[in-house]
Amino acid sequence: MTPETKSAYNTAEEWMNRLIIYNTFKKEKIPFYSYDEEFTDVKPIGRKSSGKIYKATLRSLRKTVAIKSINLTVDDAMNEIKKHQILENHDNILKFYGITRQGDYMLVYEYANNGTLRQYLRENYQRMSWNVKLSLARQIAGVIGFLHANEIVYEKLDSENIFVHNGKIKLSGFEIRRQSINASRQNSNSQYLESPGAIYRKTSLDRNSLGILLWEISSGTPPKVIMNDNREHVLGTPRAYVKICEDCCQPNKNRWPSIEQVIRELDEIDLSEIESGFFNLTSSLGRTKDVNMENGIAAEPDSFTSEMDLFMKNLFTFFSELFVKQHLDMMPICIKKFIKDHNKNPTKILYNLVSQRRPYYTSMVGFFYKHSIGTIADNKIALEFYSQATNGVIDERDHSSDVWQRMKKGLFDFSRKQQKRDPLEH
């Protein structure tokens, strides 16, 4: 394709400049696409400080692409494109397809169909598994490591400048507000070259920003909320992941981990510890006929004689172990699996827990109501039992109390529904 005719420009000088630009791109074998002939369904999708961004269909490639207007000199434009072409060999860098012109020259590159990372988290966080979250974190750390290895500092690493395409992290080389680590060396004498320590410090901002990004991925919370002194992680976040976030965000900059260390520690996180790490405990408890009460809680003198009593004792021991060793948001899954593996009816178990006066069952009753195990969820009743457990109060089963009446009705209604679905008498 060739640029428009001379009549399309106000002056001969302008036409000549455009021709020089076109010939420069052609010499560098950078594809040029006619805007009117090649692009359809052009829609504005945003604006950056460096120019407007559009979404369009590129006919010859049969692809949906992004088009961004630029206002650069020929040399600057060529430098930006060459830098991007080097970077785009990485899977997490948006691909560059060429240039076009509609008034100003415009860059044509890969379109990210999931928008920015901020948008992606806002729209998908509630259904994201930890496999997805950890994959996003690893990809971001990996591509930042790639940039640092190429002596490039990202400088503005946040979820609004990171894109997602088909669930995969993408950075735009043209959006990176970057400084080459060795840029200051080019016109300097060797005695003024930066030391390795100075180079390491230049990348520190990226490493700190990465820690904040990891918090955002794990919590779904934007940085304005995260950037305070109360960065509480979401229940179920892997401990090793939390440690990485805390290390990157600690006040002492000299103790921020290197990007290589972050990548290594993210790669070493084992999600099986969250998803099934304590399910093995259910098997071992199932084979144990007499499990000692742990955590300083001793069994009452009257022995557990019935099968149900023995099961509840084992269930409580398992429940106590989970509090010590398991992530809290996995506990309902573990408890439900324990009950299912032993072919027990959760409604009948809850009824037995409520009927007995053993004080160490109080918190477990609250847990059942909190997480709808054997009953409908009732936060008020759950809080009542949690409060009793916290204060060491034993419910004397005042059957006239409002809590008891609501609990009794809830158990009855839920049990009747369960019997219609599952006639299991265990």
Describe the structure.
The protein is of the alpha+beta class and 426 residues long. The chain has three domains: 6-110, Phosphorylase Kinase, domain 1, CATH 3.30.200.20; 117-180 and 196-273, Transferase(Phosphotransferase), domain 1 (Orthogonal Bundle), CATH 1.10.510; 274-421, no CATH class. Helices cover 48% and strands 12% of the residues. The chain is built from 18 helices and ten strands. A six-stranded mixed sheet has the order 1-5-6-4-3-2. It has a two-stranded antiparallel sheet with strand order 7-10. A hairpin with a 1-residue loop joins strand 5 (96-102) and strand 6. Helix 5 (130-149) packs antiparallel against helix 7 (204-219), helix 7 runs antiparallel to helix 9 and helix 16 runs antiparallel to helix 17 (379-391). It is elongated. Residues 180-199, 275-305, 394-399, 414-419 and 421-426 have low confidence and may be disordered. This is 812_t:CDS:1. It comes from Acaulospora morrowiae. Keywords: ATP-binding, Kinase, Nucleotide-binding, Transferase. Pfam families: Pkinase (PF00069). One of its GO terms (molecular function) is protein serine/threonine kinase activity.
Oligomer: single chain
Give the helix proportion (percent range). Answer: 40-55%
Q: What number is the mean pLDDT?
A: 73
Strand content: 5-15%
Tell me the number of structural domains. 3
Tally of strands: 10
- What characterizes the major β-sheet? 6 strands, mixed
Distance between the termini: 78 Å
Strand numbers in spatial order across the main sheet: 1-5-6-4-3-2
Total count of helical runs of at least 4 residues:
18
Question: Uncertain spans, ≥5 residues at pLDDT below 50?
Answer: 180-199, 275-305, 394-399, 414-419, 421-426
Secondary-structure element series: HEHEEEHEEHHEEEEHHHHHHHHHHHHH
The global form is: elongated
